[in-house]
């Protein structure tokens, strides 16, 4: 990993859920490196709360 405060992660919840799941555990593990969170529900990358991701639980 690049050791620079200028380099951070854009956490793409849609792709993370479709490839591996475990959104909350992965976000906790990388929280200090996450600068932005891109939301898109699964399936079809629609608005939050239109699919399988529980956004209220993730964002709490």
How do you describe this structure in short?
The chain has 60 residues and is an alpha+beta fold.
Number of helices: 3
How many DSSP-defined strands?
A: 2
Using only CA atoms, what is the Rg? 12 Å
Integer count of domains: 1
Based on helices, strands and strand pairing, what is the structural class?
alpha+beta
Task: Assess the beta-strand content as a share of residues.
Answer: 15-25%
How would you spell out the order of helices and strands? EHHEH
Largest sheet, strands/sense/barrel: 2 strands, parallel
Report mean pLDDT, rounded to a whole number. 94
Low-confidence stretches: none
Helical amount: 25-40%
Shape designation = elongated
Q: What is the CA–CA distance across the termini?
A: 28 Å
Identify the strand order in the major beta sheet. 1-2
Can you tell me about this structure?
The chain has one domain (9-59). It has helices at residues 13-19, 23-30, 55-59; strands at 9-12, 34-38. It has a two-stranded parallel ribbon with strand order 1-2. It is α+β, with helices and mostly antiparallel strands and 60 residues long. It is 33% helix and 15% strand. The model has no long low-confidence stretch (mean pLDDT 94). It has three helices and two strands, in the order E-H-H-E-H.
């Amino acid at each position: 990993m690049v050791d620079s405060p200028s380099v951070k992660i854009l956490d793409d919840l849609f792709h993370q859920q479709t490839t591996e799941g475990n959104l909350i555990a992965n976000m906790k593990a990388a929280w200090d490196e996450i600068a932005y969170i891109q939301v898109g529900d699964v399936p079809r990358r629609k608005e939050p709360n239109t699919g399988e991701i529980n956004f209220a639980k993730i964002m709490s």
